[in-house]
């Protein structure tokens, strides 16, 4: 039997079968590598439970990792919607790291600035996002409470995953865009035999026949331990024109002479905050 993982909670999953049935499933092995959005081969072990035998080939996998473990976020998505808000404050570095992970998987990114009805906080938030706008990242401003529908055209025809820090309004967006989300969450929770809130696990909702939306738990960090130096450098859009132009092949873009990135930094074509984040990431990778 085949199905799609529509909820992931620890080592327990809910798989939606072709007829719409939700079946709680466990992975065959102790180490699980299943993500919400995965298409899987399963075998029923009883009327109300199954085992995941295999994961079908993926088109993409968004995940974060450090030297200890990795945390899968969503599979087979073609768009990541990173939700930030005017309040509470958001982390530039967290946004950057999530965008790098998306770039490395060739997943199209969209940044949503929520709570734009808080007009006194809007200029500061726009200022924080200016560097991303300058790099060509799409930014949509809205208020999830009143204008969540502004996001719908961007979701049409895509399998999107919502990512962001806690408190940014992801759940408000989901409940506005998918009126039956609360019912779907209750059904998923019943299948998981868990009363936990929706944001404690990733869940996939159907917007229409061609569009799906995955809500993921709020995050406070985004490790990139699974990416090597070359992959990280390529994921910085503004670095790409200069890669391979340094005097030294193994240039660390730190103090080396004739470094193309340092020259671009000095010329102002690379943002100093982004460059500092790059070095912080690389320092963590080397330490790990």
Secondary structure topology:
Blueprint: E1 2-9, E2 12-17, E3 22-27, E4 39-46, E5 49-55, E6 61-65, E7 70-75, E8 79-85, H1 92-104, E9 108-114, H2 122-134, E10 138-141, H3 144-147, H4 152-155, E11 159-163, H5 170-177, H6 181-192, E12 202-208, E13 211-215, H7 229-235, H8 260-267, H9 272-287
Parallel strand pairs: 3-5, 8-9, 8-11, 9-10, 11-13
Antiparallel strand pairs: 1-2, 1-4, 1-12, 2-3, 4-5, 6-7, 12-13
Helix pairs in contact: 1-7
Which radius of gyration do the C-alpha atoms yield? Answer: 20 Å
Q: How helix-rich are the residues, as a percent range?
A: 25-40%
Q: Which class of secondary structure composition applies to the elements? A: alpha/beta
| Intertermini distance | 41 Å
Main β-sheet, spatial strand arrangement: 1-2-3-5-4
Features:
13 strands, alpha/beta, globular, five-stranded mixed beta barrel, single chain
If you had to describe this structure to a student in words, what would you say it looks like?
The protein has 288 residues and is α/β, with parallel strands linked by helices. The strands form 2 sheets. A 5-stranded mixed barrel has the order 1-2-3-5-4. Helix 1 links the parallel strand 8 and strand 9. Helix 1 packs across helix 7. The protein is globular, with a radius of gyration of 20 Å. The termini are far apart. About 2% of the residues have low confidence.
């Amino acid at each position: 039997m085949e199905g799609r993982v529509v909820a992931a909670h620890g080592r327990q999953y809910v798989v939606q079968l072709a007829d719409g049935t939700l079946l709680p499933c466990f992975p065959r092995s102790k180490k699980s590598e299943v993500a919400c959005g995965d298409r899987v081969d399963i075998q029923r072990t009883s009327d109300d439970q199954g085992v995941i035998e295999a994961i079908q080939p993926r088109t993409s996998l968004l995940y974060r990792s450090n030297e200890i473990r990795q945390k899968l976020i969503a599979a087979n998505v073609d768009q990541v919607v990173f939700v930030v808000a005017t309040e509470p404050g958001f982390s530039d570095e967290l946004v950057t790291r999530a965008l790098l992970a998306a770039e490395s998987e060739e997943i199209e990114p969209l940044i949503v600035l929520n709570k734009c009805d808080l007009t006194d906080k809007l200029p500061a938030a726009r200022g924080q996002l200016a560097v991303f706008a300058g790099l060509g990242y799409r930014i949509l401003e809205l208020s999830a409470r009143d204008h969540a529908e502004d996001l719908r055209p961007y979701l049409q025809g895509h399998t999107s995953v919502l990512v962001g820090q806690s408190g940014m309004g992801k759940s408000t967006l989901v409940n506005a865009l998918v009126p039956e989300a609360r019912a779907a969450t209750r059904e998923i929770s019943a299948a998981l035999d868990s009363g936990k809130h929706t944001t404690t696990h990733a869940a996939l909702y159907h917007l229409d026949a061609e569009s799906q939306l995955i809500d993921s738990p709020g995050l406070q960090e985004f490790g990139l331990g699974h990416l090597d130096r070359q992959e990280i450098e390529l994921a910085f859009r503004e670095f790409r024109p200069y890669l391979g132009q340094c005097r030294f092949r193994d240039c660390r873009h730190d103090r080396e002479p004739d470094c193309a990135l340092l020259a671009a930094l000095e010329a102002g074509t690379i943002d100093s905050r982004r460059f500092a984040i790059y070095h912080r990431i690389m320092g963590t990778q080397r330490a790990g």
